[in-house]
Amino acid sequence: MHRWFFANEREECDEEVAKAREKDKLVEVEEDRELVAPPLVRTTEWPFCVLYPRPLQGNEYVAITGNCESLGDWDPQKVFLMDKKNCSCSEKICNCQRRFEASVIIPRNIDIHYRFCVVVHNPETDEIYIRFWESRLESRVIRTCQNMLKTCDRFGHRDDFDTECRVDRGWATSETYIHFMIFNAPFHWQQQSPRLLYVHIQPMFGKEPICPDALKVPARMLKRLTLSSRPSEPLAAEDSSQNLRLGYTEVANLRDSKVLRFQPYFGVCCGPEDMQLYHCSIGSPQETHYRLDLYTFAHKSGSDEPPYHYGYGFVKADQLMYSEGHVLVAIMCASTHRPLIELCLRYLIIRPLWNFKCDMRRTYERYWRRSRLPMDIGHRGSGTTYYFGENLVRENTLYGFKQAAAANADMVEIDVQLTKDGQVVVYHDFVMKFLLKQSANYEELLNSSDLLVFPFERLNRLVLLMMGGLRRTSRIDVPFEAFTYDQLNLVRVLQFAANKGHEVPCDRMLHEQRPFPLLLDMFEEEELPQSLGFNIEIKFPQLDNSRRWEKESSKPSFDRNVYVDTILEIVLQHAGNRRILFSSFDADICTMVRLKQNLYPVVLLTEDPEFAVQYLDKRVSVLDHAAHLAHCLEFFGLAMHTNTVLQQPAIVTRLHQLQLEAIVWGSINVDILVRNKMKKHGVVGIIYDRLNQLDQLGMELPDGNLCIINEDSNRQKLKEIEEQEWRTKCGYNPEQ
């Protein structure tokens, strides 16, 4: 027994020793693997060369970005700066003055894709501002088998024989854009007679804000602030740390088709018909002030006599409190330093998008393949809410989008806006209209309206009024932005479309037809295929020409930057390979979307010219101004009403001359003859209703959406209507 006992004991010890030895061997193998170096990647010091067509401004550099670590992996903050080649030519005119070279070590085991760009570099903060970059969809490439015998590249051109220059303006990476707008001479004259003025806006940097008393003294006495002689140079100050802070001011007149350019020394003309847009790129907006210098010509000046300095004014950094607004600038006499006039200066601040960083891999901002057929775009899905027999097909719902996708739509138009708690909801109207009548004829209302039922316990009349509702004759109008998503999610619908063939459970089908879906849910591939593009229209109320808020809405309470950032972050993070197109009737919203990202195109919407009520903003209501704004800020194009093209057939050709595309929308697009005519004009997209029906059957609801509170007086009646709808469409009651 003892022998067997010790034998068993010895066997257990041997097993433990064997396990320990195996473990030691594994450790040795792992250590050997760590000691073995990874295979070396063959690299080459590659010479890059590019010809830039114009002289650079202060602190501008030509740089390279690409898909390898030495070129920054497409990161705008890690571009490789190039050196300007010293000219040794004795000739007065030579290309060496704009030739830039760099030698970069690149791997040769992969194809190297790269682009050239013009950047502003701040060496103190190591920040890069993208001024211009090559925006061709296909980047430049160095093949693994390619040698170094290559001619110098031309900035923006594919090769020496390419006549089309594809260069786009940059976007807000870490800098802030500030737009000052002087439209139609907003000067308030006091005792002087009005005269034609030229305005020059110059950024100024200082450690401390300008005190009010300092605004009353000449500029030479402002010791903390020093103006540069050129708008493109770094602005100097007493503190050496401020020598690197940059400010660029460019200007464009929306009356003509010129692009943004640097200001002349004596400013630009700001007459009654001029619409001057000042585009300022600022690195430190909290410490940046602005000086306005006004010039005018003498009454008996000669043709060769320059204008004289008429007056000056200042805008302090703390006056630009919000994302948009107006500032009253007191203009002082340049000689006596006494008040002369007041200038109502409108501004817009475009801050960078912090929660998502765009790279320089590709851009679709102005890309359109000429061989592509015009897009069929479903208006709000399968169209504005309409009756098809006994079925109610609701707009801006997952069901409507699926109907358009089944009809091979290229894109669907989606209206989005924010709720009170910051949720991006798909909905069109700015106002929720709640019916006050307790003894209403619901059968008649169902024929003209889409009735949405809300519970009395959560939304009664007192709550609606406390939310900012406005009481009218027979209803209470509540701004959509006053609702939270949880409140909207309480809605019940009285009518919906029948379940065709019962291939989908009725509960699931009804869920797809509920109003107020989230934009985030639309990006789920199991819901909508990736091949279906989204034309995302950002809703934001604005004033009409009667100086009232459009469509009975009210002044928005959201900050514009927060509003746009919330929508952009969802799209940029979840869109994937889906085609995206942004649009809006608001020119400032389009400007923000364009300057906050570099990936998706932006389209400015214009109203039907036959409508009696137009927008107050002339950048939208005047077609030429809209086209020039889209041109200077590099939008994809304009989305015009079909009546605009029918009245002005040459407008599409005019947009093509400005490198813009045209999209048309309108109820008359349901006619196939009208759509064919638009295609002959050269539009790239047509937005129309009931895209899934060739015969265009259906009756639109004249009164749109109407909300009802489920009170004791009407609860039984509403329940009967709902049960009857379920029995007809689903074959059972909802409570079963």
Automatic annotation (TrEMBL):
One of its GO terms (biological process) is glycerophospholipid catabolic process. InterPro entries: Carb-bd-like_fold, CBM20, GDPD, GP_PDE_dom, Ig-like_fold, PLC-like_Pdiesterase_TIM-brl. Gene3D superfamilies: Immunoglobulins, Phosphatidylinositol (PI) phosphodiesterase. It comes from the Eukaryota. Residues 374-698 form the GP-PDE domain. Residues 38-163 form the CBM20 domain. One of its GO terms (molecular function) is starch binding. Signal peptide: none annotated. Keywords: Hydrolase. This is Glycerophosphocholine phosphodiesterase GPCPD1. It comes from Drosophila madeirensis (Fruit fly).
